[in-house]
Design brief:
The chain is mainly β and about 160 residues long. The protein has no helices and 11 strands. Strands 2-9-8-4-5 form a 5-stranded mixed β-sheet, with no helix packed on it. The protein is rod-shaped and about 100 Å long. It starts with 12 loop residues before the first strand and ends in a 22-residue tail after the last strand.
Length: about 160
């Protein structure tokens, strides 16, 4: 009787499609490719989200050749996080690849009117002064739109 044995001492290879580096709020989609003849839909492929103090993880599902999942960013603190994808093949070989450094920002910017004061009567051309701050964006605001008297929003 002949017995064939396959020796697998190579970890799976991982390629990352998303997330890209940047800001995320609410949900962050994670998509990765895993290459290894001993990885299939029953294999353990997960995303690890680390912020230096705590770790979170989600299992990724095989969908059309891509491992994917969605991470709820409201379950972690705001600020910088590192996302890894980890794949383990059937022989127990594991590979963890640094995906991206991302920043979670689930809080809306704050807006305060400086002038005119509430209840002011305006006529002709009028100026408005306001302050927009976003604590997770180092005080910088990426963009803003405004509306006057319920009209359409303008940049």
């Amino acid at each position: 009787e002949t017995l064939s044995v396959t020796v697998d001492d190579q970890p799976p290879q991982i390629s990352i499609n998303s997330p890209t580096s940047g800001f995320y709020a609410d949900n962050m989609n994670i998509d990765a490719g895993v290459t290894d003849e001993h990885v299939d839909s029953s294999s353990n492929v997960q995303a690890l989200i680390k912020d230096g103090g705590s770790n979170s993880s989600i299992s990724l599902s095989l969908n059309g050749g891509t491992w994917s999942g969605s991470f709820d960013t409201t379950t972690v603190s705001e600020g910088n996080h590192t996302v890894y994808v980890q794949a383990t093949d059937k022989a127990g070989n594991t590979n963890s690849t640094l995906v991206r450094n991302v920043r979670v920002d689930n809080s809306a910017p704050s807006i305060s009117f400086e002038s005119p004061s509430a209840g002011s009567t305006l006529s002709g051309d009028s100026s408005f002064n306001l302050t927009i701050t976003d604590s997770e964006n180092n005080g910088d605001t990426s963009s803003y739109d405004y509306s006057i008297d319920g009209g359409g929003y303008s940049p």
